[in-house]
């Protein structure tokens, strides 16, 4: 997804600054994948350490001769289950290295190419200013929908997590994953609100343009991270995020046009 967005912005805007924005998105995507995968790998390593201690304790119990056959059988079953969990965690650790290298080769290489295109562009400043004006106008037309979606989705996520916590208020809020998801939704909501208010300001300055793009990127990245952290608590409830997209007029019209084209293509297709 980060690669698609990083490619779509330079393709749509065609300015040197769009190349820089694509580079920033690709870099943020690579860092996002790296930190997510690294955190998962560290959790798996900690779990392996705990499992190794538990297996060692089980082996010590199995060495005793005064335990019954039923207890021995139960311990052997527990040991097998722990070893299977250890295999799963080992796969997660190996997969983390593969995903990190893949992100570095794809997003990192693509971001380097965009940065090189930004540095070596030879457009005149007048033409560049005209393209930047058109690009900024396009951004101001489309960013409100993005900020509204992030705000509505984050608010729905906070409500969903609060309801999930009310069912088990002692255990769930103490989990780091739950706290990270909740704080992520709150931060994404505040960033999207600030970006919406900034976009509504008619004053145009280079600093304001850069701040608007940066806020949009940060709100999207934080919202995606919070969504991934909350998946284990909310599950299929996250599909409610599709509703704000369907409420937007432009997105709804594009979906309807796509469906009409598919219908027309299927009707025009020759039948045997």
Features:
272 residues, mainly alpha, 8 helices, elongated
Description:
The protein has 272 residues and is mainly α. It has 2 domains: 1-122; 125-265, no CATH class. The protein is built from 8 helices and no strands. The chain starts with a helix and ends with a helix. The model has no long low-confidence stretch (mean pLDDT 77). The chain crosses the membrane at residues 19-39, 102-122, 143-166, 178-198, 210-226, 232-251. Keywords: Membrane, Transmembrane, Transmembrane helix.
Low-confidence stretches: none
How much helical structure, as a percent, in the residues? over 70%
* Beta content: under 5%
Total number of helices: 8
Distance between the termini: 39 Å
CA radius of gyration is 25 Å
Main sheet characteristics: none
Keywords: Membrane, Transmembrane, Transmembrane helix
Transmembrane segments: 19-39, 102-122, 143-166, 178-198, 210-226, 232-251
Characterize this entry briefly.
Keywords: Membrane, Transmembrane, Transmembrane helix. By secondary structure, the protein is mainly α.
Q: Helices and strands in order, then pairings?
A:
Layout: H1 2-13, H2 16-62, H3 69-120, H4 125-167, H5 176-200, H6 206-234, H7 242-247, H8 249-268
Helix pairs in contact: 1-2, 2-3, 2-6, 4-5, 4-6, 5-6
């Amino acid at each position: 997804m980060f690669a698609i967005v990083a490619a779509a912005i330079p393709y749509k805007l065609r300015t040197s600054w769009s190349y820089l924005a694509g580079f920033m998105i690709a870099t943020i995507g690579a860092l996002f994948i790296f930190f997510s995968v690294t955190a998962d790998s560290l959790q798996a390593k900690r779990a392996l350490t705990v499992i190794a201690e538990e297996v060692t304790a089980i082996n010590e119990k199995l060495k005793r001769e005064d335990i019954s056959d039923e207890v021995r059988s139960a311990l052997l079953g527990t040991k097998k289950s722990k070893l299977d969990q250890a295999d799963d965690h080992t796969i997660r650790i190996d997969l983390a290295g593969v995903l990190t290298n893949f992100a570095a080769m794809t997003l990192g290489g693509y971001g380097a190419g965009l940065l090189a295109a930004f540095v070596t562009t030879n457009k005149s400043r007048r033409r560049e200013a005209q393209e930047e004006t058109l690009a900024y106008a396009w951004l101001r037309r489309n960013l409100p929908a993005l900020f509204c979606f992030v705000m509505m989705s984050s608010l729905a996520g906070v409500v969903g997590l609060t309801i999930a916590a009310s069912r088990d208020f002692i255990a769930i809020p103490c989990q780091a994953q739950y706290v990270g998801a909740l704080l992520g939704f709150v931060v994404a909501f505040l960033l999207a609100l600030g970006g919406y208010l900034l976009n509504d300001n008619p004053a145009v300055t280079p600093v304001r343009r850069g701040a608007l793009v940066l806020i949009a990127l940060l709100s999207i990245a934080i919202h995606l991270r919070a969504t991934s952290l909350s998946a284990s608590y909310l599950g299929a409830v996250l599909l409610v995020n599709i509703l704000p997209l369907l409420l937007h007029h432009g997105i709804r019209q594009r979906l309807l046009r796509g469906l009409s084209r598919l219908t027309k293509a299927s009707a025009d297709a020759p039948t045997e």
